[in-house]
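Ticket 4471: requesting a sanity check on a complex prediction with magnesium ion. Repro inputs:
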Amino acid sequence: MSKNNAFQRATDAPALPTRTIKFILYCLANFHGWIVLIALLETGQAAGSILVPYAIKAIMDGVTQGATVSMLERLQGPLLLLAGLNVAEIIFSRASGALLIIMGPRLRQRTSKALYAYLQYHSPRYFGSHFAGALAHRISETAMSVNHTVWSVLFDFWPILITFAVSIALLLNVHQGLGLAVAGWVFAYVSLSYWLATRCQPYAQSYAATRSQVNGKMVDSVTNILNAKLFARLKFERDYLDGFLETEVQAARRTFWYMERVRWFQFIAAALLKVGTVYYALMLWDSGLIGVGDFTMSVGLALLVISDARNLTRRFLEFFEYVGNIANGLDTIVQPHEIVDVAGALPLQITQGRIEFRNICFGYDPQRPVFDNLNVVIEPGQRVGLVGFSGSGKSTFVGLMLRNFEPQSGQILIDGMDIQQVLQDSLHEQVSLIPQDPSLFHRSLKENIAYGRVDVDDAAIQKAAKMAHADDFIDAMPEGYASLVGERGVKLSGGQRQRIAIARVMLKDAPILILDEATSSLDSVTEKTIQENLDRAMGCKTVIAIAHRLSTIAHLDRILVFDQGRIVEDGGHEQLLAQQGFYHRLWTMQAGGFLPEEAS
Ligand SMILES: Nc1ncnc2c1ncn2[C@@H]1O[C@H](COP(=O)(O)OP(=O)(O)OP(=O)(O)O)[C@@H](O)[C@H]1O
Ligand SMILES: [Mg+2]
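Returned structure tokens:
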């Protein structure tokens, strides 16, 4: 096991970097050409718009020059330049817009795809401690932020840089003092904007955190709206949410007040530059150091610089937010995978179906072990029932067999192969589970039943449904096998959902079958019929069946009685009854019905 490695990643998962910048570069890997092209077009566009004041200067110079030739002739060049610049600006900016349309969605797709592919290989423990909705949201948020970060650089910062550089160059050409003064202003303005953005970031972050907290509360409340109704607490929920909405108002105001202060700074700085440039250029013109054309150009450039510099703080702030979103997304999703295939893992080959737990120690929390040195062998083709009180470790036992969790020590062997050393896919292809609380895809019944097998025809699907006694209710549905089942299967009754899960597993037909309370939601009549079909489907498979209703497992070859993670009794039904122990007590108390809730 590579457990001690710093970062463990499933071999089939994409090698995503954990650092934000590296991750962005990873996402951009296929798009280098596009980026360069967009940057070039943006350069052209920015240069085009910044040269407009230059063309106007040329026109002004032409207008004020002595009239040796006709005005139109004098102005032909500058006018053509002005028209050309405008056309160039339009073409360049729309061309980069078109590239954005082609590349943007692809980039987002690539990011989402990579994150989802990485997420798939996380362990059940990971999914147990993260909300599905929150993870899906994280993926889309991260993908969107990658796009926004790249756009910020390409469409905001880069053109601004060009504008500043070209204007300063033009002004330096007019008069060095004027150029240096504007350069000084730009430097001070950018540094201050950046500094203000860093100062504002904590406010913006706490505002974002409040928003997402309020959103979480809202989702929880909407999810439980039926509960609220049943307990006549609708008004209570409104008031409860209102408290959180109020905190959002406060956080929003704090951020916006800060932004308002920043705007004061921007307006004052802009006014200074405007007035300063006009004054300085006037002085220069007055002393005959520059012409009237240079004067107009300088003022025009100052105005352009101001319009580009406006909102720079907000742009920095947004940029920080996008980068922060990406960092959060990576922090949640790009964690080491807990359970991975070892290097050189072989496919599991089940020929007999012998299962052995050897010295297994396991606890979800290692401090509180569920199993302490558990040893048990299940022979090929044996049909074993697991019984015991709620929480005694039955589901954990089968969870370990499916490698949902890694034992802290010990081995689980199937046909002599350690399941930690085989490919997980091969394990899951050959061990079927009907879980305690089956969940279905919000897809058609047909797709749900056929899930374990890629190439099956309708006849096979219907046969499996019949075996699981699901055919009657499916046929009665308006859309039959094409009916959708709702999120996780909520549009079906518990028993119907369970029967679809049984049909799905019957179709999969794997050599080892695990039933965790597979028929617990069914009425006794349906259960009895399905039980017979299940028994037939078991054939010579190795079967592990967990049941609270002892009558459903009494006929199996062997019964293991669990108590607080230990197997306290082991044997056939008659044999255990004869022992007059734990099982006997359960059996007599239950009298063929259910287990009592607690030991008495
Ligand atoms: N995902 C989990 N994280 C932490 N502890 C868990 C988790 N699942 C189960 N446990 C704990 O492990 C112990 C064994 O639980 P397990 O689900 O195996 O019981 P069980 O015998 O299947 O019970 P039931 O008959 O109610 O299904 C319990 O104390 C339970 O609280
Ligand atoms: Mg259980």
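Notes from triage: The chain is about 60% helix and 10% strand. Leaving this open until the requester confirms.
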